[in-house]
Amino acid sequence: MHDANRISPVDIPTESQIRGFYKSVDLADAYAITLPDHASRNPEVLARLLFAQPPPSMQWLLRLRDVLVRPFGIKTATHLQASSTSKPDQRIGVFRIYYSRSSEIILGEDDKHLDFRLSVLCRPVDGPAEDAHQVVVSTVVTCHNTLGHSYIALIAPFHRIVVRASMRRAARRGWSAPSSRAP
Fold this sequence. Notes:
By secondary structure, the protein is an alpha+beta fold. It is 33% helix and 26% strand.
């Protein structure tokens, strides 16, 4: 039986612009979920549903991360959120928008310890509906130094939990904003 809310680990899609983005990759993962018929196929809308308003548990994790990384000079979520307030059309939540096309949006950030890119790709798939689509959230990270390697080793398990939780939350909401249906 087809489970529309099942989140599956997948390879980074060959059509994604982040595939092969970095010469060396220290973390790479991707997760896919089938979208319901009414869901938006616009990757920016999907990215905003996934990341613009994190749940309280994720906000708590970001605050904890800020406290832990501040002494190392790593950009904090608070700093990045302030950037999103001053440039809302250039960011989704704490993530900077780097690239957008009709089927994919690339978000990310560069810092002294590591750079990362996050892809939200909407693609057609074989499914129960003739126009079935899935959203694939992919992440690639390249580390610049020992701090970056240590940081990614510590945060990778939380990263995977947060990505899947964000996808589950959007699926529970029906891929709609809390107060309205997504276009």
